[in-house]
Each structure stands twice: as structure tokens, then as C-alpha cells.
Amino acid sequence: MITFRDISKSFDGGQSFAVQRLSLEVPDGETLVLLGSSGSGKTTLLKMVNGLVQPTSGTVHVDSQETTQADPVALRRSLGYVFQGIGLFPHLTVEQNVGIVPRLQGLPASEQHRRAHETLELVGLPTSVYGERFPDELSGGQQQRVGVARALAAEPAHLLMDEPFGALDAVTRDELQHELLSLKKRLHKTILFVTHDVFEAVRLGDRIAVLHEGRLEQVGAPQDVLRRPATPYVEQLVGRIREQLRVIADVLT
Ligand SMILES: Nc1ncnc2c1ncn2[C@@H]1O[C@H](COP(=O)(O)OP(=O)(O)O)[C@@H](O)[C@H]1O
Ligand SMILES: [Mg+2]
Predict the structure, then answer these.
(1) How close is the Cα of 227 to the center of ligand 2, in Å?
(2) Is 38's C-beta closer than 6 angstroms to any atom of ligand 1?
């Protein structure tokens, strides 16, 4: 369980807030999508979960441990992080990229290999074919799968995913969304997934939390957010989606 209690973050001594007075509970096994446009505070919020950013006020708990009290290394190990952009090490092979966390954990080589093998298999990249390749020898979609495998290789309790599919073309994004849905059924992990794409949010989220200018506008199941927008901002967001769907419906009829 990940719990935000009245959390705020200012980078400029309180003149402006990247995240403002946000409270939210993410129960175990839930996929919660943080939906908001660029600059709404999504990345800042994720980084306050794994301790890369310290809150200005309020608290974040990961499994009843307050994050500022936690051992930073142990905290990060309990959280798989898939970065915005791809973020693989270009000079390491696919297997080395995935094995890096188990290696840093000091696990024996056989265990590093087993975890790399298993998680790469899980994301559809068998080590026998892809293990020895370098990131620039993979497509964008494959590189992003390696990023997911790397996050899973630490066997984290929870996964933080920051716009993991944002840089991919629409077809590849669609494939990876589909894969994540089947992966989440098998893994039963808590996933905090960041996106600015409403369709992605609706497809992947058990619940959606809409962020705007650092504030939580609404949180609820996708159908609740779409059918009963709670604020003018969410209303506007849903209105734009309706408009897009109308354009497509007009073309199809
Ligand atoms: N390290 C930082 N120093 C100063 N300002 C920052 C820093 N990180 C983020 N911000 C600011 O905080 C706000 C939210 O940013 P961010 O969390 O990255 O938004 P998002 O991920 O939703 O695009 C933005 O106004 C951004 O400029
Ligand atoms: Mg961001």
C-alpha cells in the first residue's frame, strides 16, 4: 500500500507548488494511473514515493513505513522504477541492463542470470535471442520492454512507471499497453502509472487520479471520471475526448 497524506512540494521556498496538499491511498494490487498534462506534478509525486524528491510537507508511506524514515537503499529496492524516456545503459547488453539491480544487491551470478532470464521472458524477449544485444540494436518498443524487465528484476513489491510508453509510436504503445494488462494479472503488484494520455489511463487504470497544477482534481474508476467529472478541469478533459470520438465516428459513418 502506498499512502500520500497531505503532501506538498515546492522547489522555490513556497512561492509555487509542484504538488499541493494531495492525499491519496493506493491499496495493494491496484493499478492507479496519475493523469495530467505536462508540468502537473506527476513525476514529482512519483519521486516522493522513492525518496528522489523530499516532500516540503506531508508524508508518504510505503507499506506503513514513512519514506523519509526509511533506509533509502531498501526503499528503492522495494520499488521498481520505469523511467520517463528509456534510460537503458547503452554500453551494457540487454541481460546486463536487467541484471544490474540484482548485481548491486550482491546476489550471486546464477541468481542475477535467473532473474534476468525470467523477467526478459516475461516481457517477451528471450535471453537466447536478445540477451547479448546492446540497446541500440533493439526497436523502441523492445528497449522499453527491457526497461520494464529491469524494474521487475529487483522483485519489487510495487512498480512506479513514469510515462513508460510516451516516446513510442501509437501501434507499439498499443501492444505494450496490452502486454502490461496481461502482466499485471500475473504479477499482482501495486502499480503507480503516470501518463498524459486519457485513453491510456482508461485502458490501464483500476482507478484514475487526475492532477492539475499540482492538485488532485478527482480520483475514481475510469467510468466514474468519464461519466461524472468532478471539476471544471476534468469536465474540459472529458469534453475534448468526446470531441475526438465524434471526429472518428463522423469518419466511420
Ligand atoms: N528539480 C526541480 N527544480 C525546480 N522545479 C522543478 C523540479 N522538478 C520539477 N519542477 C517543477 O515542478 C512542476 C511539476 O513538474 P513535474 O513533476 O516534472 O511535472 P510532470 O511530470 O507532470 O510533467 C513543474 O513546474 C516543474 O518545472
Ligand atoms: Mg514527468
Answers:
(1) 27
(2) yes
Quickly state the pLDDT bin for 8 (edges 50, 70, 90): very high
Check pocket membership of 145 for ligand 1, CB cut-off 6 A. Answer: no
pTM above 0.90, yes or no: yes
Evaluate whether 139 touches 86 at the Cβ level (below 8 Å): no
- For a pLDDT cut of 70, what percent of the chain falls above it? 100
Q: Which grid coordinates belong to 122?
A: 516475461
Atom index in ligand 1 nearest the CA of residue 38 equals 23
Query: Mind listing the pLDDT tens digit for each residue in 47-101?
Result: 999 999 999 999 999 998 999 999 988 898 889 989 877 789 999 999 999 999 8
Grid cell locating 225? 471520471
Ligand 1, atom nearest to 211 Cα = 22
Q: Could you tell me the end-to-end alpha-carbon distance of the chain, in angstroms, rounded to an integer? A: 46
8 A C-beta contact, residue 140 and residue 168: yes
**Cell numbers 524487465: residue:** 149
Q: How far apart are CA 29 and CA 158, in angstroms?
A: 8
**Distant-in-sequence, close-in-space partners of 142: CB < 8 Å, separation ≥ 6:** 125, 130
* Any atom of ligand 1 within 6 Å of the Cβ of 220: no
- The residue ranges of every structural domain in the chain are 1-78+156-221
Label residue 135 by pLDDT band (50, 70, 90): very high
Sign of CA dihedral 80, 61, 184, 38: negative
Class (C level, CATH) for 1-78+156-221: alpha beta
Those residues with Cβ within 8 angstroms of residue 111's Cβ, 6 or more apart along the chain or in another chain: 102
